[in-house]
Amino acid sequence: MAIQAKRVRELNDFEPDEDGSYVLYLLQQANRAHFNPALELAIEEANRLGLPVVVCFGLLDGANGFPEANARHYAFLLQGLADAKAGLEARGIHFVMRKASPAEIAIDLSAKAALLVLDRGYLAIQKRWYGEIVEAVKTRVVQVEGDVVVPVEAASPKHEYAARTLRPKILKLLDEYVEELKPRAVKHKAGRGLPKSEIDVSDSEDVLAGMSLDREVAPVTRFTGGETEARRRLKAYLAGPFRSYGSDRNRPEAGAASHMSPYLHFGQISPVEIALAVRASKAGASEDKASYLEELVVRRELAMNHVNYTERYDSFEHAVPDWARKALAEHADDERPTLYTEAELAEGKTHDEYWNAAQAEMRVTGYMHNHLRMYWGKKILEWSPSAEEGFQRTLRLNNRYFLDGRDANSFTNVAWVYGLHDRPWARRPIFGTVRYQSENSLRKFDAKAYLKTVRELCQAEEKAGKTSGKKS
Known about the structure:
Rossmann fold, globular, 6-stranded mixed β-sheet, DNA Cyclobutane Dipyrimidine Photolyase, subunit A, domain 3, Serine Threonine Protein Phosphatase 5, Tetratricopeptide repeat, alpha/beta, Crypto/Photolyase_FAD-like_sf, DNA_photolyase_N
């Protein structure tokens, strides 16, 4: 199938350089060798120009590391890059990895490129990198969307108020964008004279050991990075647990979640590929498929819409709607019977054993069920000295421990706790008219079974950590 035109944006007016030695693709958001429209476009153009394809990746390290990323995040990223490298080389594509920012490596290697292809990203740091590249390079630059089903601007030209306002716009376009992406044959294989890689990511543990980064948050064994693992998990999920997704998705103990979020965050699997697999599944009923696609497409892309159209999506003042900030301000002086420090929250040292279990699952394994994420966030608001401080605490804890932290969904879900994409509810102390969530929400699932599940997960993770010698 052709790549949909609305996935492609030309970022400058240069023509392809006839003297270029290769077509360059900056791997940044879509870290995979298959079902990647940016890569397939690069192959198409390279075939047309009679050139090989070079794929590059800039590894941020030390003081210039990705903001808030730690050993947990980098371990998963590097596992995925090792898998992507093997997949690219099997297709005859040259892979170059260096310690540099994405902008630095792209600008350097574009000097000999006939054409530069970029991923699309909606976070501020990604927009900055891509802006630096376009400003500096003297060759044609094309950007291709491969991280959402429906390109954000195609779905809506403005910040959407809620899922209910975006949903009909997404659904109207869904069939147009949920299409198979056939791999292109690479006609001109990688040969001599191409730029050299400074890092061999094939041994991802060795690369991680040589990096200067925050190691206080350890890598996890519950999840292994890479598109191969993502597809294996998806196949196993659709063959079994998916059949109860519609009824059990809000029960953390039921095992009905697909755990695709870390792989989506690191671009190790395409959301279109997942959508196609869900539609083709024979295990789930129509309501299971509709429910899953609501989360995968509508809810996830509502988050992309939010960060794309909100300049300071990481700040309380800019991310939280006016009505909610006003409601919280009106109750800023309310008595807060229970207060905890951020350190106490991080260690799960509260009076609420269910909240502590959710925090332990996140801290130790890098994951927490969506239903509990909402309860978890609402309690941080309730237990913090102010709404503003609660917002920043929630975001810091989220981004530090979750494998899929620092994502558009992270910033959006934290802001949702404080009223984003929601409406006023009955007035309560501390919360005002912002939605409150009490312990009664825990009655919707078997909370005792969840405690047992978390204990087993944490014990397995800690045992694996001792065996491997990793720092916990």
